[in-house]
Amino acid sequence: MAISIEKFQEQGGRLKTDDIDFDSFRANPLDEHVLRCIGYMHDIEYQTVLYTREMLLMPAWKDPQFTAFLTLWNYEEYWHGQALGRVLAMHDRPAHDPRLTAMRSWNHRTLAWSPLVFWTLGHAIRRFPAVHMTWGAINEWTANAAYNRLAKIADHPALTELLGRIMRQEGRHAGYYAAAARDMLEERKAQKVTSWFLRHEWAPVGNGDVPKIETSFATAYLFGSGEGAELIDRVEERIDALPGLRGLNLVRNAINDARQHVIDVEGAVPEARMYEWTRAELEPEIV
């Protein structure tokens, strides 16, 4: 059953950052690999407004609950990008408008054509909304896992607090997408269409929106070894639980491909700091 928009209105809104000690990043800076992942996350969070543009071209725009969700989702993701940009800025890295302008200039051909692609899919394939909502759920689950993993690797109090707040909002987004996907996937035809699109087209969020090596690096560094695999096991369990989608191994396969891409381009994937998960730390990924 779809989640009521009232839940987002009551619990959502602008990410609270007034009490985050951003100055602590000057005295205790993050390492190069963590900052590279934050740069990737910054770009993807800010890209949400362009994903929203694509979704509004599908027939679901007629549903006021759907457009209300998109409004709140886009607003919250914007402030995630703002907060991550402040972390980059404290390390004297490009952030916000200059970084986004460069990214969108690099990606202008894809950005120009994507609305037409989504309009066509939405109007030509009746069950495409099931594909989209399932895709969205998987992306939100993996994003939440990525923030969880990065917080543990960095082990920086200010970053841990900031990413924890982002994760709580991402968890609500995942819940909305997943609930809608489950409803739509009750139909056998929707299962077949969704399974086909996921097996042939799904890739980690950001693929095509930022340089592929940046998506591959974040994917491989966060999940390619060690405790990151445990988080991905939880994501795969959630995908398997959706009607008709058991056994796709989408995320595991994508991680293997990303790891090989980084090795081919850069020679190796850096090893992340090791630690041990508690059950409580794994459970927030299940939304």
Written account of the structure:
With 287 residues, the chain is mainly α. It has one domain. The protein contains 14 helices and no strands. Helix 8 (128-154) packs antiparallel against helix 12. The model has no long low-confidence stretch (mean pLDDT 89).
Q: From N to C, what is the helix and strand string?
A: HHHHHHHHHHHHHH
Q: Given the structure, what is the number of helices?
A: 14
Biggest pleated-sheet summary: none
- The tally of strands reads 0
Q: Level of helix content?
A: over 70%
Percent strand = under 5%
Which structural class do you get from the secondary structure elements?
mainly alpha
Spans where pLDDT lies below 50 across 5 or more residues: none
Rounded Rg = 18 Å
Anisotropy-based shape = globular
Task: Give the overall average pLDDT.
Answer: 89
Terminal Cα span = 14 Å
Tell me the domain tally: 1
Keywords:
mainly alpha; globular; 287 residues
Quick summary:
The chain is mostly helical and 287 residues long. It is 71% helix and 0% strand.
Please outline the helices and strands.
Blueprint: H1 5-11, H2 24-27, H3 32-46, H4 48-55, H5 64-90, H6 96-106, H7 108-124, H8 128-154, H9 157-184, H10 188-201, H11 212-223, H12 228-241, H13 250-266, H14 279-282
